[in-house]
Write a structure and sequence with these properties.
- The strands form two sheets. Strands 1-4 form a two-stranded antiparallel ribbon. Strands 2-3 form a two-stranded antiparallel sheet.
- By secondary structure, the protein is mainly α.
- The radius of gyration is 22 Å and the shape is globular.
- The protein has seven helices and four strands, in the order ββββααααααα.
- The N and C termini lie far apart (about 60 Å).
- Helix 2 crosses helix 3 and helix 2 packs across helix 7.
- The protein has one domain.
């Protein structure tokens, strides 16, 4: 029986949970989100459980992750964004682990669903917008009209910037979703050629291995891109006139 390459993205209901007439079923996607959160907690907590001045391999990985994200946030949004570190760290680790766990055969890639990535992007968009107005008041609108723009171009620029601002959650979510879904689909298609080709399936196998390595790099890169764009949005909320 042939299976569609898109079958791996199918949402499967595991536990029915009706709440006041709403469908809150626990699905395979929900299961893997729990696994992702527990994996991140295990990685950080047990890596630092016996922290020492001379770190072991596990502690070094946790510290490298901490320092990498702290530097990314500082370089993208400045020292005033330090309060956002726990959020950006959690976001990066969640997306990273979601992408990497999804590379394991017979698992589920939650970031290959637009519902998940758009929920993350929407939360970031609303949170940054609320913070921007809370910190700057009406001055946050300066983000739509940077200083030094000729008055004659201001109306057009404001419209362009306004459209650009409101499509942020769309571009942020679609970029991650599309990359993960496309990569996994291609892997599934190539893998489908291995068995039918029999002894001639070595070519697809080698190509599949190389493609898997590339997909791992994409998984890490997409976690970085998603997080660094979040840092840039935070920077806009802190410094709207820049």
């Amino acid at each position: 029986m042939e299976h569609s390459p898109l079958e791996q993205f199918e949402i499967k209901r595991l536990i029915e949970i009706p709440i006041a007439g709403l469908d809150a079923a626990f699905t395979n996607s929900s299961t893997f989100m729990v696994i992702i959160v527990l994996s991140v907690w295990f990685f950080v907590s047990f890596g630092m459980r016996r922290a020492s001045l001379v770190p072991g391999r596990w502690q070094s990985l946790v510290e490298m992750s901490y320092e990498f994200i702290a530097k990314m946030l500082h370089d993208s949004a400045g020292p005033q964004a330090r309060a956002f570190f726990p959020f950006v760290f959690s976001l990066f680790m969640f997306v990273l682990f979601a992408n990497l766990i999804g590379m394991i055969p017979y698992t589920f890639t939650v970031t290959s669903h637009i519902a998940v990535t758009f929920a993350l992007a929407g939360f970031i968009f609303v949170g940054v917008t609320v913070f921007g107005f809370a910190r700057n008041g009406a001055g946050y609108l300066r983000l739509l009209a940077p200083a030094g723009i000729p008055a004659v171009m201001l109306p057009l620029l404001v419209v362009i910037e306004l459209i650009s601002y409101f499509i942020r959650p769309i571009t942020l979510s679609v970029r991650l979703f599309a990359n993960m879904m496309a990569g996994h689909t291609i892997l599934k298609v190539i893998a489908g050629f291995v068995v039918p080709l029999g002894i001639f399936g070595f070519g697809p196998v080698f190509f599949l291995i190389a493609l898997t390595g590339l997909e791992v790099i994409v998984a890490v890169l997409q976690a970085f891109v998603f997080s660094v764009l979040t840092c840039i949005y935070i920077n806009d909320a802190i410094h709207p006139s820049h």
